[in-house]
Amino acid sequence: MSINFDDVQVGGTLRVGTGVCPAVKDGDEGINGAVYAEGPVVFGTQQAFPQEQATLMVARTENKDPDCEPADRSLYVKGNQFIEGDDGTEFALDVDGKVHFTGDLICDVISPKSLSSRFVDKADQLPAKPFDIQHPTKGEGYRLRYVSLEGPENGVYYRGRLKREKEIYLPNCWKGLVHTNSITVQLQPVGAHQDIIVKRWDDEKIYLQAKGGMPIDCFFHVYAERKDINPLMTEYQGDEYPDPNFDKKCKVPLEDRNFADPKYNFPRNTITT
Predict the structure, then answer these.
(1) CA distance 269 to 225
(2) Which residues contact 221 (CB under 8 A, 6 or more apart)?
(3) What is the mean pLDDT of the chain?
């Protein structure tokens, strides 16, 4: 049975379904103007959803009333939002289409993969961590895919060319970033054999020497292991990484985690002195 009204005004609480909803309260404490619907609920175009796909389904406006001017959006929200996912689907938020941000996008955890739908699997489930971009020289229709260089340490590097100098000046930040006794150096002479050697190093410079004091011209790579975070545990038993601060399921906010927690100070991976 159905009843048709031209207009309906509800001064109290509008309920569709059975049961008590604590959020809108009940009886004398019921909130005026509140609405509870057991669901499923559809707003907008009647045929937009061929079956039940969610508790709340919102489609574009399809209203033949001459006083209605359908908007170009199905949903417009003013105010903050919070999405708390569950295990109903793989993702708490699944977007099919372009996404535009006009403010800051702050992520506690960033998965090292493209934001496009090309990648379905989580990056940490892949055998290698890639980046995939439009080919820089062949253009549209071609792509370029590289994977990250990996190793058994939390390593950083500094590279360049040294010409007519005997000292490689390390980045100033390395004083607080790396273990000085993890530094290694690779040198490649340019133009002629120079018999270049590393005499010594500290947290500021790499000191070189060439045969017979001849001018040095070389490419260099300097590698070191980070000390601002705990060393990498490369092999471990079980499904979870031993340091919970690096666990993707960790509920502690990223800014509150201690990545140098002494309880998880694993053995160093590279020591050169």
Answers:
(1) 8
(2) 157, 158, 159, 185, 186
(3) 87
